[in-house]
Design goal:
Two copies of one chain form a homodimer. Chain A is of the alpha/beta class. The longest helix of chain A has 18 residues. Chain A contains 18 helices and 15 strands. In chain A, the strands form four sheets. A seven-stranded mixed sheet of chain A has the order 1-4-5-15-10-11-14, sandwiched between helices. Chain A has a domain of 267 residues: Rossmann fold (3-Layer(aba) Sandwich). Chains A and B meet through helix 5, helix 7, helix 15 and helix 17 of A and helix 5, helix 7, helix 15 and helix 17 of B.
């Protein structure tokens, strides 16, 4: 009775899978403020050519450089676990599997793309990367990757997290990165905010503005910007997760797969696991593929498919995506990585094409699932990951009711050892659920009503 | 160029290795307060038969129950890493390997024995385990194991750590354990301390007294006690580490091994890696085997080989070991797991037989090594583990000076994600070194001068 299916270093994928090559409806382009498509060359001040090429590539398979594979091989292929303990606790006939991305040195899936991004920047002579981080998962992953490729790393961390989660900052500094609270006095964007609100707690949008500004205004032109989710090249780098999982399910003797689940904030860990299976679905396989979001930030289940900006102030192009409107301020739930108003264009397009069935779950049910998982499987997952766990439990219970031996796969995107406060609140009974009202949504959508509309609109939702 | 050598589930050892079968000088028995050897039956109120049998077993190989292997297989065999990044940073001709025990769900090697102990207790009908924990590594590992075997778990956590490290307590509670600050009002031992010192910060000795008392005084006779290091059966359970490492070095193509290194507080992670190699050394292999301790708690390098009690108040038998005296109060270094006055009898005997060469290193050098390791290898190690890292660096530099292609192996016993304060202090330049003075040592040894002496005393040191 295998509990863990491992692969050898030789099984680490040699190519990333690009879903853009297979989408039924071609991906709509990002648009500039003038409503015209953004050309690749307009991205050059921000990203290196290697990544811009991937961002717009129509190729199905893209080679993974050996230098990137060598670093990923420090923890990849990651194990696939059979959740015997959870199955027993639920008394389900379903067979539940999870891909364990918590074993990377930064504790999540984020290093999969951080390593690739650091590599391409290093290769093109970039000396320094700037980025933003909310709760700190992405900032620490990029700090880790920059240490290994000997690039400087500057992280603008949302002030409220900077103050509340000092450990993430220490991780980044241990890896040699510089981490400052945002809004900071180091950029015009930050100074403008501080001038009007000296005690601003910051948010991801402000931090993005600062990080982009720090890259484009570097007088020595040695800095580029890096993003941890949303963009096509970021999702591309994560597909090693699903490609490995396919081999592992085969090794486990599974002939079919019924349900694929991942939590989705910007969409990268979900896409990483799911896209190689979306390929199968496009080509006739029958399965449900579920991105799971918080009920308090229901981008995919309540938001419309629109063009919206990726930050709050328009430093980014307009992206074709499900969005709650860039002015939306999510409740301060513990799953900080899922508090984002939009959703990756590739994930959004797949939803719009009817390939994915998004689901929203409240944080109380998520933490209940995470505690059951910890006690039956032994792993304490990140608050973000608890959404995937809770959805897998829902599906396993459904299989029990239906008396079906379903095969369920979810992504264990990260561990929760630096986010234990959420568990403390849940166990103490002080945690609350939040839901988004139609009124608040309508108010936020008002701000984007004059933006260009994605055409043709798919028949999806 | 392999960076990670993995084994399949089938390679998980089927037997533990018991060094007691091979020591040149037979292990001296523990003694009661009357100076007479403690018989196995005297341990029955505290431990289940399965563990007592292992504690006194003369057998070289002891079968690992399949039920224990099935749980260990959730993260074992653990990977062996080649430290290419560290080697490059040091410019050393040495080949450095490390066994990565940080990937267990509790983040250290401790679950290797926690799982075995939970299994034997469960098998004999024990409903509840009580234990003590200092910084929390052991308490969380036992909580994890008890969750999987559905046994209750009660942890007495040293008050000062309980207050300073709330996250460890949350981990234990997430796994369903109960964790109270020690001294507590729940035991006579705790109440006595509180009566004389209501604000007592506690220490490991008091917590041991409380945990043992909670087991032996349980009116329903359903509670036993569990210990995370020092004892023979605990070290036995850790030998899966070294047995796996042997297979992995062979798989990596290494024909010999020159240096084996592990940090040592009670001795269990060191023993786990080293004892299978001590076997080789006893049988003629030439290598240096180095247990590393803090300069501020130099049990092996400054303490004499004596009989001393394992706690502070004599709840435990007298054990034959290197000791600084049970009244010794180590400085509050960040490596909380290495702050212990004694050393495991098996490790002590091997030192006394000249098989091991202990070394003491100050915490500044340890953290410098850990930061270099994080930036070159990507992994942030526990403060305890930093002692092994620093020693490996010393040996790699020596190999460089000598121009020798030495093969060095050390145990990465745990990650430091719940102990980042030490890194913060180091990076801020506020960390201090501490050394033990001969005067303080002499004063502490005064308290045990009338204890029985180990006879015959080996020629070791």
């Amino acid at each position: 009775m295998k509990t863990r299916i491992v692969l050898s270093e030789d099984d680490l994928p040699r190519q990333w899978y690009n879903l853009a090559a297979d989408l039924p409806t071609p991906l709509r382009p990002p648009l500039g403020p003038d409503g015209k498509p953004v050309s690749p060359s307009m991205l050059e001040p921000i990203f290196p050519h290697g990544l811009i090429e991937q961002e717009v590539s129509p190729k199905r398979w893209i080679d993974i450089p050996e230098e990137v594979r060598a670093v990923l091989a420090r923890w990849r292929p990651s194990p696939l676990h059979r959740a015997h303990g959870l199955e027993k606790a639920l008394g389900t006939p379903a067979r539940i599997y999870y891909k364990n991305e918590s074993l990377s040195p930064a504790g999540s899936h984020k290093p999969n793309t951080a390593v690739a991004q650091a590599y391409y920047n290093k290769k093109e002579g970039v000396k320094r990367l700037s980025t933003e981080t909310g709760a700190g998962q992405w900032g620490s992953a990029l700090a880790f990757a920059c240490a290994l490729f000997e690039i400087e790393c500057k992280v603008f961390m949302v002030r409220i997290s900077f103050d509340q989660k000092p450990y993430r900052k220490i991780m980044m500094e241990t890896w040699g990165a510089e981490c400052v609270a945002s809004p900071s006095g180091e950029t015009k964007a930050g100074r403008d905010i501080l001038a009007s609100d000296p005690g601003s707690p910051g948010n991801l949008a402000i931090a993005i503005s600062e990080a982009v500004e720090a890259a484009v205004t570097d007088p020595q032109h040695r800095t580029k910007y890096a993003l941890g989710s949303v963009l096509n090249h970021v999702l591309l780098h994560q597909t090693v997760i699903g490609l490995e999982a396919k081999k592992q399910l085969k090794k486990a003797g599974e002939k079919r797969l019924d349900v694929v689940i991942g939590c989705a904030g910007g969409g990268s860990n979900f896409a990483g696991l799911a896209f190689p299976f979306v390929y199968d679905k496009i080509h006739g396989a029958k399965m449900e593929i579920i991105p799971v979001e918080p009920a308090s930030c229901p981008t995919m289940t309540m938001g419309p498919f629109v063009y919206d900006i990726g930050d709050a102030s328009g430093m980014t192009p307009l992206l074709p995506m499900y969005s709650l409107g860039h002015t939306f301020m999510p409740e301060p739930i513990h799953a900080g990585g899922l508090r984002y108003h939009g959703m990756a264009p590739l994930v959004s397009a797949a939803i719009n094409d009817g390939l994915l069935k998004p689901r929203a779950i409240g944080q109380l049910e998520c933490f209940a699932g995470a505690v059951l998982f910890a006690r039956s499987e032994g792993i304490i997952v990140a608050p973000e990951t608890s959404h995937a766990v809770a959805c897998a439990i829902q599906e396993a219970k459904k299989a029990k009711e239906e008396g079906k031996e379903k095969v369920i796969l979810f992504n264990l995107s990260g561990h929760g050892l630096l986010d234990l406060k959420g568990y403390q609140d849940y166990l103490a009974g002080t945690l609350q659920d939040h839901a988004l009202s139609r009124e608040v949504l309508a108010k936020n959508l008002e701000a984007i009503k004059d933006y260009p509309k994605p055409e043709p609109v798919g028949a999806g939702k």
